[in-house]
Design brief:
With 281 residues, the protein is an all-alpha fold. The protein has a domain of 195 residues. It is built from eight helices and no strands. α2 packs across α3 and α3 runs antiparallel to α8. The longest helix is centred in the last third of the chain and has 49 residues. The radius of gyration is 31 Å and the shape is elongated. The protein starts with a helix and ends in a 13-residue tail after the last helix. The relative contact order is 0.10.
Length: 281
């Protein structure tokens, strides 16, 4: 009985933690959506706020089934939780296999997605902040090179572009000195007109896709550890849910057998024993 309670409350605790995290993701996503301008075009692939809401909602639903299924011993909810987790686990494994076997196709799709994000850089404040963070973190600029920013209407390097930032790059591409206290947001102006060796003195010229792939290869153990840890956690929760379902069924079966046995004993008590003495004294 103690083992069953331990399984029950461990599963509940794990689901509860992810439930709270999912609620936080939804709250942040909703706040970001409300704070945005209403005329912004929403696209799941390039809208961080919408992505947070969708991911948070899916996590909230799955962990809700796990929490209440474990707490109330509801096999129906636990079976739904178990089934969804198995499907998610298989999809993650399939995505990893496809990514390994079709690396070129995945890289091409990723490049298209990143280029689409560059095109919409000024249209979405959350997307703009996300791109700036990535370029600062990985010390990169653009997708393949700093000249990819010419695909954005504000940084397009043409004579007909009236923008003050034409032929430039965002300030997040700039190389900042360690002792620099004032941020120069105009440091990327006109950088696309310079050749790579000259531009490299003031901005990062290597594309972010190459830098991210390079980082992943150099931190392969970390990436593999995080991925493996997530998969093991899912397998652990699947095992807990399956064990609890099995224990619940076993307890119910025992109760049913005990009830039938008690009913049979009550029926037997209605019969008189053989050779009973009914003589009056």
């Amino acid at each position: 009985m103690r083992g069953y309670r331990a399984i029950k409350y461990i599963l509940f605790f794990c689901c509860y933690v992810f439930w709270v995290v999912s609620a936080g993701l939804i709250a942040v996503g909703v706040y970001a959506k409300i704070a945005k301008e209403k005329d912004v075009v929403d696209t799941l692939a390039v809208d961080p706020a919408l992505l947070l809401i969708v991911v948070g909602s899916v996590m909230f639903l799955i962990t809700f089934l796990g929490c209440f299924g474990a707490l109330r011993n509801a096999t129906c909810l636990l079976k739904m939780f178990l089934g969804i987790l198995v499907v998610v686990l298989l999809l993650q494994i399939a995505a990893g296999v496809v990514g390994y076997l079709f690396t070129d196709m995945v890289m091409e799709r990723t490049e298209r997605l990143m280029m689409k994000a560059i095109v919409r850089y000024r249209e979405d404040q959350d997307l703009e902040n996300a791109i700036d963070f990535i370029q600062k973190k990985f010390q990169c600029c653009g997708v393949e090179s700093y000249k990819d920013w010419s695909h954005n209407v504000y940084f397009e390097c043409t004579d007909t572009n009236p923008s003050l930032e034409f032929c430039g790059v965002p300030f997040s591409c700039c190389i900042h000195l360690q002792n620099q206290t004032v941020l120069n947001t105009m440091c990327g102006y006109g950088m696309q007109q310079l050749q790579q060796p000259t531009a490299a003195q003031g901005i990062f010229t290597i594309g972010c896709l190459e830098k991210i792939v390079w980082w992943a290869k150099n931190n392969l153990l970390l990436v593999a550890g995080l991925t493996g840890g997530l998969l093991l956690l899912e397998v652990f929760m699947i095992g807990l849910a399956a064990t609890q379902i099995s224990r619940i069924k076993k307890v119910r079966q025992q109760k049913k057998e005990n009830a039938e046995r008690g009913k049979s004993e009550r029926k037997d008590s209605y019969w008189y024993p053989a050779f009973a003495n009914f003589d009056d004294e």
